């Protein structure tokens, strides 16, 4: 990975400034507009509360390619942005100090550095690095950035910091708070601003000026020069820094760097002291993290190291540097040498050699050589793939004041885009070496984990890493950055950044359930909380005996042989819940200062009626409806108790509550319910009021088709929609006299029930259905057109949208009601495996995941309409009732992202409203780009739809107009999608594989992996009909474009291949409407070689004007190509009507720009075409975007084409896959990220370079 040395290991004062910031082009044609790129660095900044802040002002500093962006955690708002480097992504951010220091700040042994600086003026600076680039952002620039500089709405943006270049890659860095010069020697004070650690285990001090415009590198120090993959720095004292490095060969080196060398020996080795060399991992070390000092017991403090590796394991090491006498006590081993400063001049240069735990590593401190192997405290394996980062929570109170052990929290972040939480528990008796009784007779400990060293010997750790939860934070692969900090209230806050460009925020949440039987509840963290707060965090498990341990109702008798359990639940409000039991009893739970329960007073006949079977449904406003096996219907009101409404002839099967009236207006004091009764051929509609007297049974008969078992109901305009147990829908037109049955349809491929029918907000013609097949669908209600063209009043159902979110079974759906209609979210809930999941389809984010044992269990769930992240859930698990509540999602998106894998194709609709992208993650996303010239931070892509049907990486996308999208993937897949805009307040697109809609005929020409090209005629009525086919021999085809498609002339296409050739093909005219199966053959009429190897991208422009257009006697194209040979090619192609068919094609000129890029061209598009010339944009794997002009000489019909370079800019998108014009004068690059560029008009005097 690193193939260059930093510099020779001698003291060199790198006084040269190495400022590489280049002056901007005075008139660049390409102007950067927006970028969505992987998040490569994260850090927290705890600032002073602003005027609009409630509590602490927490900001996230994110490195997004070359940009530093600041986000406000509370509002998820982008505060400001600053370009730091010219062409180097940011890899790390260090905050020197903060007005509200985090426990994760660099700690000191003994007196803290913060206490020493408390009387001095503290200013926060940022140290930013990436690759070999370094920059320091001064306090003034940071404050201006936080106040909105660079956002377009705040003050003037801060100036771009100066960029300095080191001679090796940087893995970590720190800045020291300002100290008096008297605290250090003169030699140390000259370079006391901070330290960097490089990829070769070298520490370099730096000295920065106050404004960050000057940076001096000091002399390097290194005990050995292995190749590192990770490193971490921790300041121990004013002149000592602890260094941890993880090597490519699976070793971990722990050493001290002493800044004040004059206080130690005069030898060159006096600046470093190797403490340990750990072995045990079986792969490269991708992450190391040094903990703050942790108090294990009163007077006992330790420092730990966490490491993660290619072997998918996490290891915890004790790196406390103890005196030899203490080592003998804590480890029970004898010190071999009392000289704590004995070193060897030999340095470790490679990862090979050495024994277990560094026992043969002569550079390790003498008293630690026999101790390193036993320093591994715990080992755990997690994640489905490699682990990139591991971090401690920063809490230091393992031994709390209440004498309760508080496990050390560790968080790991992996390639599988998951964050996993671990808790480290230690055997303190064995740690302190007080007695051997801590080890049972069999020689093992309950908390011990046996591990094997590299020499094959077994050792037993004295702790365990217990897995406490997994959060899926991103899509695709790779979580490139993470940050962990604590708020002022000691709650944990975690930020993650992924390859998808998304930033997530998570923190402390209740993880486990507790069993309670007293009036006051104890939460899972051991503290008694006020459960009455608005949607507080708790998870409680109760049995019937816990709810009512001493039944007092004399009329209620439960047989001792039958265990009483909970049967049904209904939330009456956010602070009350009704539960029924198998013995017919009702309990009312109230959430206040504690969760209290009381039995509802019932008469003996009602208890007997509800025993063994009952149906309970929530109505709202403290009310619920209850049905029994005998057909009786009851209304329960919190303030009035239970009353019988009516008696139906047979057993009540289900009750469905309709939220709207017949005419779509919300009735605040009325409920409409539909009741299905076993044995009846019709359903019953009942309108309920505030009192029994207001309840009215609808006399209109709602007939049900035999076999149609109703499971869901809803209104849409003036129609009633019913869903069945087998996935069918039926529509009824509502008239004053009847429910007139209309058509029915079934789109579910399995016999799974429709679980909900929800009208779209702001629409009287569209509604959504959820189904247990895991899909939700959107329908519109339309009218019927007869063969004669006349329209009838009979309503019809038209499927508009069908998609499968990451839920196994959808049980319900609802739309949030925010203050701003543009922020409406679609919320789905259901079961996935053993979990109950609440999912935001709009944000593509899990709002809650609760382990419940799986589907097919009674439950009820509720959230406030304006805050879907607040959740209350009650359900049955193993005869117990679980009551779960959360005040906020365990994970939320601070910034939305995109594809989690490399994008390979992009296409804009003909009206430029929508942009489609496709990636290796097999998904297609449809976006809308929103620009705000006055406020750059408001720019961005809004994802309107995600299409998930392909089984392989998608290679190509193409819009047909603005309503159809064609996609092709690697496994010979080709899909046609119909895209429509939903007419509602919910902002989304309806997407459907072409199975309906208006008649549309399209011509599709395609190339296949077997070097054949085919042209099809497609419509929904006749499907695909082959018109023409051909085969190219000798190479694979890579590109195809239509040249001429004219009735009577046939189809003319242009192809490109891996041999660098462009070819023109002509197929005779074929009437595709026939059914005889006739197919024309493509004839190869012209071949021109432009590239030495594969043609990877192609675009063309038809040259009109004086030389003729498509229908004229002469047509001419200027074709631009990009190749695998790094070249840009132009083909001047003409067609003369006077020629004989294909013989009319002539190559008028071939032009090739050698080394147009430093790597293969992967994207190309014509930005502007005009008579006589074109402007072309290109992008390459060298991360450069260039603008070219190809122009013919005026009046020269067959003259040469002159090519000039107009602009050359750095692109933030790595591994670019496509380049597309998304609007007039605007480009979008797709690859590992998305980037938007504005192409300005040429000014007088602009020329090529």
UniProtKB/TrEMBL annotation:
One of its GO terms (cellular component) is cytoplasm. Its main location: cytoplasm. It is found in: Cytoplasm. Pfam families: WD40 (PF00400). Keywords: Cytoplasm, Repeat, tRNA processing, WD repeat. WD repeats lie at residues 278-327, 896-937. PROSITE patterns: WD_REPEATS_1, WD_REPEATS_2, WD_REPEATS_REGION. SMART domains: WD40. Coiled coil: none annotated. One of its GO terms (biological process) is tRNA methylation. Belongs to the WD repeat WDR6 family. PANTHER family: WD REPEAT PROTEIN, WD REPEAT-CONTAINING PROTEIN 6. This is WD40-repeat-containing domain protein. It comes from Bombardia bombarda.
